[in-house]
Specification:
single chain; about 100 residues; mainly alpha; about 0% strand
Length: about 100
């Protein structure tokens, strides 16, 4: 008994099989590209998280330093008898002066 393959000849079936193999190879290449891209995104996320943690630590250290500087400035203002608002105005004027000279 002859096995029936429908109405397609062996040449047509062979051509369809070759086309399927080519498509599978193309899809495999695209899957590999997606995998590589996903791995690269994962690496970027890990690096960004590490950077964010380092920045957070740096900001915490800066906050502590600024708090210490503010406390020392307030103690200095108390010792000199000049209010903290005057010192704040003085430093603000100095900052504005530097800013003006730097930009213009």
């Amino acid at each position: 008994m002859e096995e029936r393959r429908g109405q397609y000849s062996d040449a047509v079936l062979s051509e369809l099989e070759n086309q399927n193999e080519n498509e599978v190879e193309g899809m495999s290449a695209k899957v590999k590209q997606l995998k590589d891209l996903t791995l690269a995104i994962g690496d970027e996320i890990r690096d960004s998280s590490k950077l964010a943690d380092r920045m957070n630590d740096s900001f915490d250290n800066t906050r502590v330093r600024l708090r210490g500087t503010m406390n020392r400035m307030l103690r200095m203002a108390e010792r000199t008898g000049v209010g903290w608002r005057v010192w704040l105005g003085f430093f603000a004027a100095v900052v504005v002066l530097f800013w003006y000279v730097w930009l213009f």
